[in-house]
Specification:
The complex is a heterodimer of chains A (66) and B (741). By secondary structure, chain A is an alpha+beta fold. Chain A is built from 2 helices and 4 strands. The chains are: A alpha+beta (66), B alpha+beta (741).
Chain lengths: 66, 741
């Protein structure tokens, strides 16, 4: 699954890491900060996209499924 | 290392940076900008969301900085809004300066032209010198008349440009022909006159008139800028973890929770989520009293929070806010105004074909009755009729009257920003008035009191002094300034306040406060309250825990001059309308008192504008009088807009007339001023034309059979001088006339 986010930079990744690790699993996600859309790629297909969005919201970030 | 050269050329600016979600975003956007060429210094602050940049404008522009940041997902807020306005002002400025330059050059060349033409006509090569002097005047400085006349001709029409171009063009070429081929005339015993100075002076004078008109024209208003300035640049936003950060207003989104402290401007539209306060909404609704805001109350961008603090959730942001809509309404109305056709152009449009017909008739008559040299005389007659046709004071008739009229207005406290308003005012047949601040003072005052026996003024004033309620001001003003100590003060939202003074508990507030605390009301108090309500007063009840001790009636007082002014206006046969954003009851009461039958209340800014539009659609010429921001869209839409001097900056900017004092009787005075100014313009046009009109038959040869008299440059010069002097004198006469009240 891919999401457009506002996970802007390395530090932001650090902030969301604990949340995403809990929801998706530590090796199953990555963020491309070089892309202006800050694409979050989630490898774990069994996770519901709503859960990803909510968990990012709890960390203080936005996500939009694309 | 920065050289001193760099320092001189560098520019320092602040831009809001958007999409930063944490402190390290600030760091990465900063390093992104630092690496761009031309950036001397940049520091990005996460807390206030701002980038302070020092850069060399020759090497980099804000747009490039914006692109760089956008490529990594951030954004830079560049003010493009004010730039587009600036362009328009620049263009206007340039065309004004070009006009001024041409006018002065034309004058400078005209002076020797007149001297030679009238006095030194016998110096060697006089004619050739005049030819050289006249050529640039006619073809370079005066070219706007020729291009204007051509445009009119393409539509088969004529205006002032046509008259000027025709007369000066023919004068010029006729004179050139006479220099090069005088024998055509001398062989027939006709003196080959040269009319260069007529051509030059006409152009110079008409240009002077145009310059005066341009100066009297109102400049592009800064009202839009002021409206935009009502919003704060930054907001205090509540973020996920509950902390509050400063955030640029442009980045606020629907659903964001914002904090508002006492005295702050509200940034966007929304609904209160917690806290309570009073908010001054007069700029949007016109209500003079601040409105109480509690949970779920709506709040609007541009309004001002009073003494409390609260949080609200953003509902409408950016161009969706009510304020943004007012701004675009004003802008649209200002842009769509069509210029009124000038009286001078109308007259010229008829005069030109008439003169051409006269010149042809004279040609024909000469051919028929002129004998041998009939054709030649006829040609001479035809040409000279056209030469004498254009009055040199034509261009001065309107601007001189307008200038004196505007000056007279200013002397009487009526500021007129543009000429068109002065001319159009007398045509007004519908006048729309705002209520608050226009017909009323705009400030709540105590209008009546009723006490059961003892007057508890000190106690009430003491409670009000602490309360921070908007009506408190009125009460405090009305009572002696001695206060008692208050303990156990309590503010009850939506009801009022209570406090303990000298061991006794007192309450001050509205009917709800009395009911909730089961305080009894004497019959006499009740009756008085009803009487107050009939007059649309707002009532403050003062009580102890057993009974109501007294009531205060507060209202927005109607201006003393209002009744008289309305009476005067009614005599003018103008339909009067009263519009307000306030409630029905006060609107109707005010309308009754001053004598206006058509009253509309609870009107939003766009309702007021639509009302004006509707009247215009019915074919009426509408004047609008207002003082608030909520009037600005209607003011921009109206044909004539008048702002009260004590009103908001925005209204003063949008309106094309302003009344400096708050005296409404100035409005009928403005009508009187407009009438006499237009009368003066018409008189001026008469004086401008009359001498030339007398000259036309002379040019056609009416006196030839009598004494051989034909047109010569002296006569042309005399006509020009007389018409100019008459016009200017008549305009100055306007100064001495009194404005009838």
């Amino acid at each position: 699954m891919k999401f457009k986010t506002n996970i802007m930079c390395g530090d932001c990744i650090k902030k969301v890491t604990p949340y995403l690790n809990k929801t998706v699993g530590d090796t199953n996600w990555s963020v491309d900060t070089k892309d202006p859309k800050k694409i979050l790629t989630v490898e774990n297909e069994s996770v519901k996209s709503d859960d990803v969005v909510n968990s990012l919201a709890a960390a203080g970030y936005k996500a939009e499924k694309i | 290392m920065q050289s001193t050269m760099d320092k001189k050329r560098s520019v320092r600016k602040n831009f809001p940076v958007l999409n930063m979600s944490c402190a390290s975003c600030a760091a990465s956007s900063q390093s992104m900008l630092e690496n761009l060429p031309g950036i001397l210094n940049v520091s990005v602050n996460y807390a206030n969301g701002n980038a302070a940049v020092e850069y060399l404008p020759d090497e980099i522009q804000p747009q490039e900085m914006q692109k760089a940041l956008q490529s990594v997902g951030y954004d830079l807020l560049i003010e493009d809004e004010n730039n587009s306005r600036g362009k328009l002002e620049e263009i206007e400025m340039k065309s004004y300066q070009s006009l001024r330059r041409r006018t002065f050059l034309a004058i400078i060349l005209s002076v020797p032209l007149i001297l030679i033409g009238m006095i030194f006509m016998n110096i060697p090569y006089a004619d050739y010198i005049m030819w050289v002097l006249a050529t640039p005047i006619v073809f370079i400085f005066g070219r706007q008349f020729f291009s204007g006349a051509w445009k009119q001709l393409k539509h088969g029409k004529a205006n002032m440009d046509t008259l000027v171009a025709m007369s000066t063009g023919i004068a010029y070429f006729f004179s050139v022909f006479n220099i090069l081929y005088p024998s055509f005339w001398t062989s027939r015993d006709i003196a080959p006159h040269v009319y260069f100075e007529a051509a030059g002076v006409i152009i110079a004078f008409i240009l002077i008139g145009k310059l005066l008109e341009a100066r009297a024209k109102g400049s592009t208003s800064s009202a839009i800028k002021k409206l935009i300035g009502l919003q704060p640049n930054t907001v205090m936003k509540v973020v996920e973890d509950g902390s509050i950060i400063t955030f640029p207003i442009a980045a606020v989104e629907v659903g964001d929770e914002l904090v508002v402290k006492p005295g702050e401007k509200i940034a966007v539209d929304g609904n209160v989520s917690s806290g309570n306060s009073f908010v001054d909404e007069s700029m949007i609704t016109g209500e003079p009293v601040a409105v109480e805001k509690m949970k779920n109350s709506p709040v609007f961008a541009g309004t001002i929070n009073q003494k409390g603090s609260f949080r609200f959730v953003a509902g409408k942001v950016g161009s969706d806010t009510l304020l943004a809509q007012i701004i675009s309404m004003v802008r649209d109305a200002q842009g769509s105004r069509a210029p009124v056709q000038k009286l001078v152009d109308k007259i010229a449009g008829i005069f030109v074909p008439v003169v051409i017909v006269i010149s042809l008739i004279s040609l024909v008559l000469w051919i028929i009755f002129g004998g041998n040299s009939g054709l030649v005389h006829g040609l001479l007659a035809m040409v000279t009729v056209l030469v004498i046709a254009c009055p040199c004071a034509l261009g001065l008739a309107t601007p001189t009257a307008i200038m004196v009229g505007m000056g007279k207005g200013a002397e009487n406290g009526i500021l007129i920003k543009d000429a068109e308003s002065l001319e159009t005012t007398k045509k007004v047949n519908a006048l729309v008035l705002d209520k608050t601040g226009t017909i009323t003072e705009g400030k709540p005052v105590v209008a009546g009191q009723f006490w059961l026996d003892h007057r508890f003024e000190t106690e009430l004033a003491s409670l009000e002094k602490i309360s921070g309620h908007p009506l408190a001001e009125a009460v405090i003003e009305a009572f002696p300034k001695e206060y008692a100590a208050v303990s156990a003060f309590e503010n009850i939202p939506g009801a009022g306040v209570s406090g303990e003074i000298d061991g006794k508990i007192y309450f001050a507030g509205n009917a709800k406060l009395i009911r909730d605390n089961r305080i009894s009301m004497d019959v006499s108090i009740n009756d008085k309250a009803e009487a107050f309500l009939k007059k649309a007063y707002t009532i403050v009840y003062f009580a102890d825990k057993d009974r109501v001790l007294g009531i205060i009636g507060i209202t927005d007082k109607i201006k003393d001059s209002a009744v008289e002014a309305i009476r005067q206006l009614k005599k003018e046969n103008i339909n009067l309308y009263l519009l307000t954003g306030d409630h029905d009851s006060s609107a109707i009461a005010v309308g009754k008192f001053v004598g206006i039958d058509s009253v509309r209340s609870e009107m939003l800014p766009e309702d007021k504008r639509d009302f004006v539009k509707q009247l215009q659609r019915e074919g009426k010429t509408v004047a609008m009088v207002g003082d608030g921001i909520n009037d600005s869209a209607a003011l921009a839409q109206a044909n004539i807009s008048i702002a009260m001097g004590k009103g908001s900056d925005v209204a003063l900017d949008v309106a094309r007339m302003a009344i400096i004092s708050n005296d409404l009787r100035k409005i009928p005075q403005a009508f009187s001023l407009s009438r006499i100014t237009v009368a003066t313009i018409k008189q001026n046009l008469f004086w401008a034309f009359i001498y030339n009109v007398i000259g036309i038959p002379l040019a056609a040869g009416i006196l030839y059979p009598v004494n051989g008299f034909l047109l010569n440059p002296m006569i042309a010069g005399a006509a020009m001088a007389l018409s100019s002097v008459s016009v200017v004198t008549n305009s100055l006469r306007l100064k001495t006339r009194k404005l009838v009240l």
